[in-house]
């Protein structure tokens, strides 16, 4: 059974009734497909914007393709995490 990610408490805010509001959140780590996918998305977006700015249609199109590929890879990584979390 995989180790669960630790849950962290953060205390914020102040009210007269309840002096602290506790927010619980779980820290999540990204798997390598998520990281690589997000990086490719960012590089593709940069290439797309640069191509548009300089008027290079080919570079703009390559950026769109790279961005789409990164989005697919990131989605695959998200799916892997969802499956891992459900088991």
SSE blueprint and pairings:
Layout: E1 7-12, E2 21-26, H1 32-54, H2 57-86
Antiparallel strand pairs: 1-2
Helix pairs in contact: 1-2
What is the averaged pLDDT score? Answer: 82
The gross shape turns out to be: elongated
Biggest β-sheet: strands ordered side by side in the sheet = 1-2
Total helix count? 2
Radius of gyration: 20 Å
> Helical proportion?
55-70%
Order of helices and strands: EEHH
Give the tally of β-strands.
2
Unreliable runs: none
User: What profile does the largest beta sheet have?
Assistant: 2 strands, antiparallel
Alpha-carbon distance between the termini? 9 Å
Would you tell me the structural class of the helices and strands? alpha+beta
| Percentage of residues in strands | 5-15%
Describe this structure in words.
With 87 residues, this protein is an alpha+beta fold. The protein has a domain at 30-86. The protein is built from two helices and two strands; from the N terminus they run E-E-H-H. The protein has helices spanning 32-54, 57-86, and strands at residues 7-12, 21-26. Strands 1-2 form a two-stranded antiparallel sheet. The longest helix is centred in the last third of the chain and has 30 residues, at 57-86. The radius of gyration is 20 Å and the shape is elongated. 9% of the residues are buried.
């Amino acid at each position: 059974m995989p180790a669960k990610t630790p849950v962290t408490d953060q205390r914020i805010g102040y009210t007269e009734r309840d002096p602290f509001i506790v927010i619980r959140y779980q820290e999540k780590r990204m798997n390598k497909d998520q990281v690589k996918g997000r990086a490719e998305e960012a590089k593709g977006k940069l290439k797309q914007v640069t191509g548009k700015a300089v008027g290079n249609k080919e570079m703009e199109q390559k950026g769109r393709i790279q961005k789409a590929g990164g989005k697919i890879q990131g989605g695959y990584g998200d799916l892997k995490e969802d499956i891992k979390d459900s088991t």
